[in-house]
Amino acid sequence: MNPRRLPVGERFRRFRDRLGAAGTTGAPSGAAPGAASAPGDGPPTAPGATGGSVGGAPTAPGADARTASGGRDGEGRGRRRRGRGGEELAVPPAEFRSYYGRPILKPPVWTWEIAAYLFTGGLAAGSSLLAAGAQLTGRPALRRAGRLTALAGVTASGVLLVMDLGRPERFHHMLRVAKPTSPMSVGTWILTAYGPAAGLAAVAEVAPLLPERGPLGLARRMLPPLGRAAGLAAAGIAPALGTYTAVLLSDTAVPSWHGAYPDLPLVFAGSALASGAGMGLIAVPPTQAGPARRLAVAGAGLELVGAHRVQTRLGLVAEPYRIGRAGRLLRAGRALTVVGVAGALLGARSRVVSAFSGAALLAASVATRFGIFHAGVASARDPRYTVLPQRERLQRRADEQDR
């Protein structure tokens, strides 16, 4: 062993003291960059570890790194931490990513059948309300159009649900349980109660075509009063049918659906009313379409107000409603709603304008339902919409506790 070589412990203490002095006081002005240390004092200092002077003033180690990144008061926004030798390391701002780019939530497995069901269920509900209003105000043509449209809508809804389930008996299995806390279970029973009432009301419209005598004559006499009762019953269930799908979507963990739970039923209710009114404007002469025009204005108002609240109140999770395919569909839906209402009011005496307005309202309802569906799917696939709002909520709670 070299007798002039210092013990390991002493060399380590000197090296530690030199590092501490370099990180707090800087190097002497006369020290040359990259100068080696004295023999026996430890390993040589790396070039650039001690700085020279700028304008006659000594500079601390790492001053060039701080200057390049803008210093503490400059333009550098990254976090800074102490590195080896006391120098500050500029770390760029963290970019959010999930593990391997995988979504945190499992996206909905629903396909276009469910998006279409959102439309057909709303159409049936709005048409039943329109038919009940026409029944109470003595407008047979509008009543007939509403009842037949309601039957077509609920039939299409059943077909779409079975297509999504894959096996028809699965819908029957849903009826074995009644669970008030499950929107899907409640919706199944709503649809089951609404279907027969809407069907009986629509069948009553064929009573004048039956013969006056015999068993069919009895049916001819019995169907109109039964149809009136069934039509009012269907109209009583229609609000639940038109809005339970919004509750079903909001009850999921999908960020853009769940965050919109106070306003999504309002959007669905308005869209249902507007679509039912649109079918009435297409099917009847303008002289009998007064209730349809008023229903179109009310439905459009509810839908536009609800959509505005969804896009302005939710913060980050409202972004899927504005961008991509969902954003395009929802903008088209709003534009078509405005066009349909304007045509319904300004073209009250024109059958062609009324029919065009009704078609615009129907197309607007389709675009709105599909847009909301695609917005939810997009928010589930991007982990930002799951994690960042959670962090914001945690930060708000921490701030409230600190007050």
Structural class: mainly alpha
Assign the CATH class of the domain at 108-382: Mainly Alpha
CATH architecture of the domain at 108-382: Up-down Bundle
| Number of alpha- plus pi-helical segments | 13
Residue stretches low in confidence (pLDDT < 50, at least 5 long) are: 26-83
Got a strand count?
4
Shape: elongated
From the 3D structure, determine the CATH topology of the domain at 108-382.
Answer: Formate dehydrogenase/DMSO reductase fold
CATH superfamily grouping of the domain at 108-382: Formate dehydrogenase/DMSO reductase domain
- Helical fraction equals 55-70%
Largest sheet: 2 strands, antiparallel
Our estimate of the beta-strand percent is: under 5%
Provide the residue-averaged pLDDT: 81
How many angstroms separate the termini?
64 Å
Q: Strands of the largest sheet, in order across it?
A: 1-2
Estimated radius of gyration: 35 Å
- H and E order: HEEHEEHHHHHHHHHHH
